[in-house]
Design a protein that fits this description.
This protein is of the alpha/beta class. It has helices spanning about 20-35, 50-60, 95, 115-125, 145-150, 205-210, 220-240, 255-265, 270-280, 280-285, 305-315, 330-340, 355, 360-380, and strands spanning about 5-10, 40, 60-70, 75-80, 90, 130-135, 155, 175-180, 190-195, 265-270, 290-300, 320-330, 340-345. Helix content is about 35%, strand content about 20%. A six-stranded mixed β-sheet has the order 3-4-5-6-9-10, with helices on both faces. Strands 2-1-11-12-13 form a five-stranded parallel β-sheet, sandwiched between helices. A two-stranded antiparallel sheet has the order 7-8. Helix 1 (about 20-35) links the parallel strand 1 (about 5-10) and strand 2.
């Protein structure tokens, strides 16, 4: 088989390669075997790491540097984007509230806050932006977005009328919410939220039990946080008239998806679908012989809205085979059943996590694997 057109759409390998770096290594691997192949490379993301770069590039935007607070309320410098027409703010939550910003020994979702995300939104509102696209994947918080709302002028009170502080710990204490001092421009703002998961707000499959352990929560914290989200959902329903408990995506980013929906009337969309629409992906992949996609780890959770699955769903509509390249892989039978033609790990043999995630090593392994895949395909051209 001679490959004439190959589409490369890689997510980032977290802590190792950006989506563009991973994609470039795959592209070089393909061209090393099929030098005349038309290789189209699309850096993509699912709403988490890398989404800002993809959006700024797709919308011909510019970056805005700002000083805001990280999840531990430490002042940091970060950035967001504004589209080329100056109307749409492009925000990646991971750059201000991301898990990678907090050392493992300091991760504690009872304490961490999404306040910094609200500061970014406020900055963009003050600059005149009224449309927002926000990727909320990769967060270190489980405060249901209360910190974000606090930065935007919302106030939360306990049963005694005392104003509450910050962090996931305040959720079970919230009995009333004051919206009167919210930023006035919010009434005219439209929010589209790029979610990387479709989990409900709380419960066994909700934000806390599925994602909070990686954010530093122990068993005791899990129970308190989930109970707090359940009680908070009732207060939210009383305040806004919206029941977000089972709303798909409400549990994204520690419940921020649901709060965006309830208080800011946001549209929640799978992050990968939003980005593929912006990239005009369906049109550009026509007549492709193969699509290569991947991310740091693929497993059954990949089928819950991650990049490879979003790519697969689009490819199926045009009967284009999809191959996955990943740092590590599990549940391959499930992934094959979903429609992936093959799944490969770049790990060549026993090696430490530190070594395998070194950027130069990862690039070399991605290049090697993609070239070997193409070499096998080339055998059928003889």
């Amino acid at each position: 088989m001679l490959l004439k057109k190959v589409v490369v759409a890689m997510d980032s390998f977290k802590g190792s390669l950006s989506s563009e770096e991973a994609g470039e290594a795959v592209k070089k691997g393909v061209l090393s075997v099929f030098p005349d192949c038309n290789v189209l490379q699309f850096p993509v993301a699912d709403g988490g790491e890398g989404v800002l770069e993809v959006l700024v590039s797709a919308m011909r935007g510019e970056y805005i540097s700002v000083h805001v607070h990280n999840p531990l309320m430490e002042l940091i410098e970060t950035r967001y984007g504004i589209s080329g027409d100056g109307k749409t703010a492009l925000i990646e939550m991971a750059l201000v509230n991301g898990l990678t910003l907090i050392p493992i020994f300091e991760r504690n979702p009872m304490q961490t806050t999404s306040f910094g995300l609200g500061e970014l939104v406020k900055n963009a509102l003050d600059r005149g932006c009224r449309d927002f696209i926000i990727g909320i994947g990769g967060s270190a918080t489980n405060d249901a977005g209360l910190g974000m709302l606090q930065a935007l002028g919302f106030h939360f009170f306990d049963k005694n009328g005392k104003e509450l502080g910050m962090g996931g710990k305040i959720m079970p204490e919230v009995t009333s919410i004051d919206l009167s001092l919210a930023h006035p421009a919010l009434k005219h703002a439209c929010f589209t939220i790029a979610c990387d998961v479709n989990n409900p707000f709380c419960g066994p499959n909700g934000a806390t039990y599925v994602f909070a352990p990686q954010k530093g929560a122990d068993a005791n914290m899990l129970q308190k946080l989930d109970s707090g989200m359940f009680s908070l959902s009732k207060v939210i329903a009383e305040t806004t008239g919206q029941n977000i408990i089972d709303y798909p995506g409400a549990g994204a980013a520690g419940g921020i998806g649901g709060v965006f929906r309830a208080f800011l009337n946001a549209i929640l969309k799978p992050g990968i679908q939003l980005l593929l629409d912006k990239l005009d992906f369906m049109e550009k992949i026509k007549d492709a012989d193969l699509i290569i996609t991947g991310e740091g780890k693929v497993d059954k959770q990949t089928l819950m809205g991650k990049v490879p699955f979003g790519i697969l769903e689009e490819a199926k509509k045009q009967n284009i085979p999809v191959v996955v390249i990943a740092g590590s892989m599990e549940d391959t039978a499930v992934l094959n059943e979903a429609g992936f033609k093959a799944i490969f790990s770049i790990t060549p043999g026993p090696v430490s996590l530190e070594e395998i995630t070194m950027p130069n090593t990862a690039k070399a392994n991605v290049f090697r694997l993609s070239s070997q895949i193409c070499s096998v395909i080339s055998l059928f051209n003889k």
